[in-house]
């Protein structure tokens, strides 16, 4: 009989994972403690913008016409405990307020709520990004609190999905990493992931600690790549070099690779910034803090880019105060194809200029509602053209495709001044210069 799967926490990761598990053919029950989320999901509505996810929900959520009916949602822990052979824990682990360490309270409370309802054999699988050592601690907790005792096992299976590609990354993962202690856990996870494994996704079996570390070290490496190229951008600017050409040239070396070498205002979002900080904090607790002091530098190079964008804007506007200057900001989300504005470099830059007296008008294809609720005092426009109308400068801060396809000529007629600063080095300088704009990228020559 096919495995029954529960997914605990139906945010970004969990909603996608639940829908993907239904797509792979399993009976799935998603659980969340937020009633509004559950109600929305039951109607097949996605709590955030993620390409392809809504279609997948409609294909499987029970009660929706024509669906497979394999995916249901609940708020009842007893129902979840009874239903699942495998329970995936997908709750978030944000940065703790005022500290670098991550907040484990959602993971801890999910495990504590589930444990008393595990009355028969079950596998609990952690997917959340956690400090190394957590799986060990949670396994001990389950052994003590689950009525089924030793019949309840734990595994750690980190998730590597990228926002904007979440469905694709979940259905066709570039690798599967499972930290296990026993053969039964491995066997069950091989069953869960049989389809992607048959399609060629590598399946790696490790111990708990290694599985936990794979996730934090992968994100640290990605953050390092971005900060490396941003550091090169700073040097290029000082030496009159071109970081875009430099990145292309070093990228031909396949030991280096071309990806994740786009210089600009740096990384943000709900993962990379908090994950490198939590990793430093955990290494400190383990007495290995020296090994990760470089991440402090990675973090500060990254945060510095936001300030550099503000200063570049000031300089291009003549060097004085922002008072009375009209600034159009294209992009509010931390990356394109997402409505996520958590720790968004774009909103950070917009906010800094606004707080220094600039009149900022923001437009984003999908992030307007989230941006408005996080930063209600900024100005907002319904289109790129409206944001640009009357502007003294245009800042391109999130590289949506829509912005690459803008009509530079039409925008030039709407703007007060043809001045565009590309905080993502993603626009074609030639196109803009031909339309009479002064174009400045980050770490790129003036003309
Ligand atoms: C990241 C990891 O990629 C993913 O594997 C992990 O599971 C979660 O964290 P995500 O947060 O969705 O995913 O974003 P990602 O695509 O990694 O981008 C992070 C940030 O880096 C964005 O703000 C993006 O604009 C920025 N970035 C990316 C650059 O500034 N330059 C680049 O070359 C690439």
UniProtKB/TrEMBL annotation:
The answer to whether keyword Magnesium applies is: no
Q: Which organism is it from?
A: Streptomyces griseoflavus Tu4000
**Biochemical pathway:** Nucleotide-sugar biosynthesis; UDP-alpha-D-glucuronate biosynthesis; UDP-alpha-D-glucuronate from UDP-alpha-D-glucose: step 1/1
NCBIfam families with a match to the protein in the record: NDP-sugDHase (TIGR03026)
Q: Which family does it belong to?
A: Belongs to the UDP-glucose/GDP-mannose dehydrogenase family.
Q: What InterPro entries does the entry give? A: 6-PGluconate_DH-like_C_sf, NAD(P)-bd_dom_sf, UDP-Glc/GDP-Man, UDP-Glc/GDP-Man_DH_C, UDP-Glc/GDP-Man_DH_C_sf, UDP-Glc/GDP-Man_DH_dimer, UDP-Glc/GDP-Man_DH_N, UDPglc_DH_bac
For this entry, list what GO says about its biological process. polysaccharide biosynthetic process; UDP-glucuronate biosynthetic process
Say which enzyme class the record assigns.
oxidoreductase
Kindly list the positions annotated as binding NAD(+). 32, 37, 93, 129, 163, 274, 342
Q: Known catalysed reaction(s)? A: UDP-alpha-D-glucose + 2 NAD(+) + H2O = UDP-alpha-D-glucuronate + 2 NADH + 3 H(+)
| A UniProt-annotated Pfam family | UDPG_MGDP_dh
Q: Give its E.C. classification number.
A: 1.1.1.22
- Name this polypeptide is given: UDP-glucose 6-dehydrogenase
Record keywords: NAD, Oxidoreductase
């Amino acid at each position: 009989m096919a495995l029954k799967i529960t997914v605990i926490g139906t945010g970004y990761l969990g909603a996608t994972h639940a829908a993907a598990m239904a797509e792979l053919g399993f009976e799935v029950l998603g659980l969340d403690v937020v009633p509004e989320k559950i109600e929305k999901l039951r109607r097949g509505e996605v709590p955030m913008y993620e390409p392809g996810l809504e279609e997948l929900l409609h294909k499987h959520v029970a009660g929706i016409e024509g669906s497979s009916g394999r995916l249901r949602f609940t708020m009842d822990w007893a129902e979840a405990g009874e239903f699942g052979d495998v329970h995936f824990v997908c709750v978030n682990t944000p940065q703790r307020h005022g500290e670098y360490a991550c907040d484990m309270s959602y993971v801890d409370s999910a495990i504590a709520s589930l444990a008393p309802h595990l009355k028969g054999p079950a596998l609990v699988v952690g997917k959340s990004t956690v400090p190394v050592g957590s799986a060990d601690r949670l396994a001990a907790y389950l052994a003590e609190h689950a009525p089924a005792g030793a019949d309840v096992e734990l595994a750690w299976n980190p998730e590597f999905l990228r926002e904007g590609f979440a469905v694709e990354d979940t259905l066709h993962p570039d690798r599967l990493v499972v930290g296990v202690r026993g053969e039964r856990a491995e066997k069950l996870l091989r069953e869960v992931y049989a389809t992607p494994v048959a399609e060629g996704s590598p399946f790696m079996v490790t111990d708990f600690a290694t599985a936990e570390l794979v996730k934090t070290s992968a994100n640290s490496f990605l953050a390092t790549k971005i900060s490396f190229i941003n550091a090169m951008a700073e040097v290029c600017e000082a030496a009159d070099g071109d970081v875009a050409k430099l990145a292309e040239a070093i990228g031909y070396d396949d030991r280096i690779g071309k990806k994740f070498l786009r210089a600009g205002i740096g990384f943000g979002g709900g993962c990379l910034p908090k994950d490198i900080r939590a990793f430093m904090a955990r290494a400190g607790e383990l007495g290995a803090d020296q090994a990760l002091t470089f991440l402090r530098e990675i973090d500060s190079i990254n945060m510095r880019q936001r300030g550099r964008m503000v200063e570049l804007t000031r300089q291009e506007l003549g060097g004085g105060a922002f008072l009375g200057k009209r600034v159009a900001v294209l992009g509010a989300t931390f990356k394109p194809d997402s409505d996520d504005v958590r720790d968004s470099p774009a909103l950070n830059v917009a906010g800094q200029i606004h707080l220094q007296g600039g009149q900022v008008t923001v437009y984003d294809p999908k992030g307007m509602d989230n941006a408005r609720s996080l930063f209600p005092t900024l100005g907002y426009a319904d289109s790129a053209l409206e944001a640009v109308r009357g502007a003294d400068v245009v800042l391109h801060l999130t590289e949506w495709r829509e912005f690459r396809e803008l009509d530079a000529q039409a925008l030039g007629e709407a703007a007060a001044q043809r001045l565009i600063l590309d905080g993502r080095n993603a626009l074609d300088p030639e196109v803009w210069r031909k339309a009479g704009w002064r174009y400045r990228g980050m770490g790129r020559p003036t003309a």
